[in-house]
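Hi U.,

Before I forget, here's the chain from the pilot set. I'm dumping it here mostly so it's searchable later in email.
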Amino acid sequence: MSLIMILQLCIVLAALWLGSRYGSLALGAISVGAISGIGLAILVFGFGMKPGTPPTDVIYIIIAAVTCAGIMQASGGMDWLIQLAEKMLRKHPDRITFLAPLCTFFLTVLVGTGHVVYTLMPIICDIAIKKGIRPERPCGIASIASQIGITCSPIAAAVVAFITISGANGYDITIPKVLMVTIPACLLGIVIASVASYKRGKDLDKDPEFQKKLADPAQREYIYGSTATTLDKKIAPESKRAVYIFFGALLVIVFFAIFQNLLPSYDTVKAVDGDATVELIGSRVTITADQLAKMGIAVEGLTKTHPTPLKMNLVIQIVMITAAALMIIFCKASPKKAIAGPVWQSGMVAVVAIYGIAWLADTYFANYLGEIQEMLAGLVEQYPWSIAFAFFLVSVLVNSQGAVVVAMLPLAYKLGIDGWILLGVLPSVYGYFFIPNYPSDIATVNFDRTGTTVIGKYLLNHSFMMPGLVHTVVACIAGYLIAFLYHSMGWI
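Structure:
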């Protein structure tokens, strides 16, 4: 590894670190994405490196998906989903440590972003307090589970990016096949982490610090004097209709992902092996058929026409935008209200983060692919699953699972790692719980009126570390074994 290569890597890491230091907690990813542009400019203009390719296909899908989900939220559909979850949680308050993370997980799976849980989290805290359960137990794992669901959602950036990049690298995988691995693996991780959280910390009636708070009448009133609930909110028929449209769109996407032979096909000119000799005023130049095809020149005997089915990335965009339009027309959804909502805004934050981070990473890795392959060849060949550590470490820096996939997956394929292995360790792209600066974690700490959900004195001894690590380890091991089983059976 040359000195110049190390210097340029330091520039990449410095841009990511500097970006994470700017911006509010909710919008920090925008800072990372934007400041990545500084690193990109230094590499391209300062060192003359060839710029990589921005991940436009993934960005377009994110825009379409979050627009649809944001419109559903603007119609009041999200309120109905939260209300249904609250009814179930209040019916079984003694099981809150197990049911709360499952609720936050499936909300994220359905909507594609973990930022939908802010309304549900204070309800989880309230139920735990009224039942006498230490809120840290359900709240810690529930916040983790809200982010875990991203790798299990058919419209989340991480899943869409995995499918798109895998297809470009010769590993054809569909949304259902990805979810066949990630959903059971992540659910097992959630269950094990919930078990580990079940008796975590002291019970409230035996916690001296909490009992000391109760001795203060003002603190007692703050903790027990209010109730967080959505059950008193009336849900309009249009709100329910929007949810049906949204779920219908998801089913259409999954249907076409399974039965891609039903998608329309279009004639495409494809170059075949062979060269052509072109006369250029006395000179003879040999040009390949691929080069001719890219220029739109069809040479008899060197090209052929064949049907190409509509790509799934376009299917997702078309279906999501159509569903958003239907909600605007039939569900009284306000576009103005949609863009002011947390779902749409968090999606746009992800777009900026992925745009800057992935472009910077692709520029660096593409220019040093040979050196990186040489350095990691032995490790990757013997322990290909070890790429999970790289995914995790990058996630700690960039706070975006989609950005990790877009930035690191092309490199993983170029290192020769099989697609089924990368799918098995996909849960490792969630590592930003490690440093507790993510909005859902900070919000959870603030929602817990008892003060049991905390960010520790030494930063890393926080309430989310244990459930996060337990889940990641369990989900990656389970995902790897499930992917191996499916691969050996010829399913993936």
